[in-house]
Design a protein that fits this description.
By secondary structure, the protein is mainly α. It has nine helices and no strands. Helix 4 crosses helix 9.
Length: about 200
């Protein structure tokens, strides 16, 4: 039950972040905004970890992050912490916040596709139907007859962001047995430091 609440909260926060980030775009570059957002998240996690998390029983049960995880963490920082956010923000400069947010649903089928094709995970009929519905909805969103010249680069940038995050999701799964607070803090601070 608590896992579902955390998942729903994470999805809601992710859903509001593109329209809010779009408000900042006239003031700064996508790279700077992405860096600041991740750096702020990393500092917030560091404070949470020091003040509360390390004192809990949960933190003692988690597996620690080790040197063997550095390549996966590096890939997560590059794909999910740098390339994904910058592509999303670049795309949001060219598309409306609503359209950009809806297109971000492509992350799910991309994640599923990579998991099945590269990591040999199983996908049932329901999962396949759900992925096809998401892709179909994104194709319908892309078709906008009222616009004479829709911004293909904005669409491509958002789709690229989803692909980078799909890679990040699959890499993250490989370190899912490690302490999630520490893994996320490392990713956020590393990505924020490059912004």
């Amino acid at each position: 039950m608590l896992g579902g609440v955390y998942g729903f909260t994470a999805a809601a926060l992710f859903g509001v972040s593109p329209p809010l980030a779009k408000l900042l775009l006239p003031e700064a570059s996508p790279l700077l905004i992405a860096g600041l957002l991740y750096f702020g998240a990393g500092l917030g996690l560091l404070a949470f970890e020091v003040l509360f998390y390390r004192k809990t029983e949960v933190s003692r049960r988690e597996s620690s992050v080790g040197p063997a995880d550095r390549w996966l963490l590096g890939g997560m920082v590059l794909t999910g912490g740098l390339l994904g956010p910058v592509c999303m923000l670049w795309g949001l400069q060219r598309l409306s916040g609503v359209l950009g947010t809806l297109l971000l649903n492509l992350e799910a089928p991309f994640t599923i596709g990579l998991a099945v094709l590269l990591f040999r995970e199983h996908l049932g009929r329901r999962g396949m139907a759900g992925a096809l519905l998401i892709v179909s909805a994104a194709a319908i969103l892309r078709y906008r007859p009222e616009e004479l010249r829709p911004d293909a680069w904005g669409f491509f940038a958002i789709a690229s962001a989803c692909l980078w995050w799909a890679i990040d999701n699959n890499l993250s799964q490989r370190v899912s047995l490690r302490d999630p607070v520490v893994v996320t803090r490392i990713k956020a601070l590393s990505a924020g430091g490059h912004g």
